[in-house]
Each structure stands twice: as structure tokens, then as C-alpha cells.
Amino acid sequence: MLIAAIEKCAAILPCVISRKVALPTISWSLTSRNYFNCPPTMSSLHANNQCFPPASFFYYGSLRKFSSSLESQSVGITPVVASVHDHGSRIEVRAKNWPNSLHIPHVWLRDHCRCAQCYDPKTFQCNFDVATMPLNIRPSKIALLQDELHLTWPDGHESRYTLQFLWHHSHGGHTSHARDTRVAWSAKTFPPLHQISVPESTISGPGLRKVFTLLEQYGVALITEVSPDLDSTIAVSNHIGPTLKTFYGDTWVVRANGERADAAYTRVALGAHTDGTYFTQAPRVQVFHMVEAAPEGGETLLVDGLRVAQVMQTKHPDAYDFFSTHAIPGQYIGDGQQQYALLKTFIHHPVTGAFQQFRYNLYDRAPLSTLSVGAVEQYYRHLQTLASVVTDQDAGVWLKLQPGSVLFVDNWRVLHGRAAFSGPRCFLGCYISNDDYISTLRTVMQLNVMK
């Protein structure tokens, strides 16, 4: 019945499929006239694109329990899992557990061959010479064996791809369907800070995964029962990523002693802000350990920048668009430094367009010389709107941090500040770069583990 159906379809299509079955799968050659009845002058479809396979040319995997008589045997065939369309530059791969099929260009497939010749399994580096690859390349043979797509190229090279690899790495697959797990919060909806003790966090297991889950969902995580000293603080933070060295050093100790040209080294209140707006890449994670709490005041303020972005986009779209399209300068001058960066306030993912980073610091603004006269007027109007959302009384959460509790803050999302205080107050901390944070996140959470 299967062969009869194929022959019936082939009869009305420009290319006639001859009966040629290779068990346990059906595979079809795109270059051999044994499979397609093409003009005898054509030695291959790679050389001449005038003869195409049928518009819906399907490949079946896992053909089970075949007897010698295909015509009379009732067989269990898995649903259509792959197909080729007649435009000749890509294939369509379909799996029954996918929400959609994948349209994958031949050039992508050749470049992403993961055999040892094309891709070094030890260094995870590409060896294939993509610069000289024929741009009109197409496989001469396609087959699906269980959950693997097998391709043979015109030069005889063979490539194999698991369906999982294709789903995770090609356009339209996993990335397109990845769910945003971030949860915006306000003062009323701020989640309880799940306290994770050091014994949990010092192992690469559930405790550490919980820290990353909280950072990804809420932008904050708290680890308790840490000895109130710098070495213990760094030992804990190293599980998230190595410390980022800046002109502050690898780590910092903040007291109200005026040691740095920064308001943080005073006793005054600090409004909600993100750090490093004078860096081209602001630190991703900021680590706070209050080893000596002030006797009066000094509470820590947290504001969710994701919620700020959502409110701005919904209620003040003009202001949101302005800060998403106009770069605003930031600076740090002092201690022998002249740091300067020019970036947008709201930064979005380059592919999905989703909110990715909020750069907001009213203290470290540089002279506004980068905007036109008209844009300057818009800037101050929109800045006051943005500031009102950040300082809204429902936005901020106040915490009284105590020695032994290490707070991790996603500096690309969550703003921090503090109340004015009197008396001694000391906290230790460090930064973790975005690159190192993402690397550890992917390793611990086993994200995209296929190299």
C-alpha cells in the first residue's frame, strides 16, 4: 500500500519515483537517475537545478515489522518526520513531538556537520572550510534512521544530525519556543527570599541550581550562614562565577570613609540605580555581604527593572521607545580613571527583541552632548517619567541585611539603593561578568549542552 501510494503521487508530478526501498528506512537519492526519472543529460541535480524532487517528498523513519510482501503487510509507520520541498535550497524536517516543522537550508546543514573531520570533539571548534563551500550545495542522498538525519553530499562526505540537535540549534526550533521564565515583581508581589544555606550552595547540585533559578526568575537570590569575612564571601560567589576585576579591584570593601570618588562611600541615601553605566558591558551580577549593619538606617532598596520596563512600555510607550533607541552617556571620573560609555537605557535581545538590560544611574550621567536639540528636550521629559516609575512607592522593596547573608543581584535587571544611615556600616562584595555568569548558568542548568 505504501509503494502504491507513492507511485500514485509520482504519476502526477514532473519527476517519476521508481521503486527503490532500503530497509529499515526509505532513503532517496537526489542525484541518481535510478531514483528520479530526469533527463539523461543531467548527471546530478547539484549541477543543474532544473529537475526537482516532488513538492512534498517525505522520508519515513522506523519502518518496523516489514515482511517480504510490502503490498500485503499492514505496518506501523511513524508519522511523517521529514520532507523536502521543491525550491531546492533547504529541507523540511518534521517530528511528531514538535509544534512546527523546521526549514533548514542545505548550506546550514553542511556547515553544521559534527563529524570529527568537520568539528573537533575535543576543542568544540569548527574545522570545515565554510569560506569555500559552494553556496548552491545540496545533499545527494537523504535518509532518516530512527532519530537521526543522514545526509550524503556530492563529494561523498556523510553528515549525521540527531533531531534533538536540529531542534535546539536551527531557526524555528527550541530558541523560538523558549518560554520566558522571568517574573516581574513589585513591593506587594516580591517573592519570599528563599534562604539557601552554604552546605547546599557549595555543591554543584540542587542548591546551586536553585540559586540560578531564582536569579533567572526574580533577579535576586540569598545565601545564608556564610562567615562574615571576605574569603568566605568570595568562596560562595565563585560558585556563580569568578570575580570581575575592575578599577575597584577584584573585590571591594565599602565603608563610609570617602575612600573612593563614589557616593557609595558616604552615609547619604542612594536612590535606585544599576552599577557600571560607565562600562560598555556593565557587571551582570553584584554580590553584597553586609558584615556590619548600621545601628540606624542603611536598609537596602531593590527595584525590579523588568517591571519598570513593562510599565513604561504599557503606559508610556513614547518614553520607552525613546530610551530604547537613544544612547545616553555615563561616566566615572576619579581615582585616576576616566571611564565612559554610550549605550541605550533599555537594551533588547538582538534576535527575539525581548527586554534584556536596564541601564539606569542618575548619579553617573555624563554631559549630554550626544543628542540633538530636539532630542534633548524629549530626553528630560521622558527621564522624569521614567524616574517616577522607578521611585513609585509600590515598586521598591526594603531589606535589612545582616551578617552571614550574601545577596546576589542581577545588575542588568534589578536596581539597588540604600537608606541614609548613622554609625559604622560595612559590606563586602564583588562583581561577576555577564560572560562568566552565562557560562556557569549554561553549565549548571545543562542548557544547550550539545556543542
UniProtKB/TrEMBL annotation:
Pathway: Amine and polyamine biosynthesis; carnitine biosynthesis. Residues 101-166 form the Gamma-butyrobetaine hydroxylase-like N-terminal domain. Its EC number is 1.14.11.8. GO terms for cellular component: mitochondrion. Residues 207-431 form the TauD/TfdA-like domain. GO terms for biological process: carnitine biosynthetic process. Keywords: Carnitine biosynthesis, Dioxygenase, Iron, Metal-binding, Oxidoreductase. InterPro entries: AlphaKG_dependent_hydroxylases, GBBH-like_N, GBBH-like_N_sf, TauD-like_sf, TauD/TfdA-like, Trimethyllysine_dOase. CDD domains: CAS_like (cd00250). It catalyses: N(6),N(6),N(6)-trimethyl-L-lysine + 2-oxoglutarate + O2 = (3S)-3-hydroxy-N(6),N(6),N(6)-trimethyl-L-lysine + succinate + CO2. One of its GO terms (molecular function) is trimethyllysine dioxygenase activity. Gene3D superfamilies: 3.30.2020.30, Clavaminate synthase-like. Its cofactor is L-ascorbate; Fe(2+). Converts trimethyllysine (TML) into hydroxytrimethyllysine (HTML). Belongs to the gamma-BBH/TMLD family. This is Trimethyllysine dioxygenase, mitochondrial. It comes from Hyalella azteca.
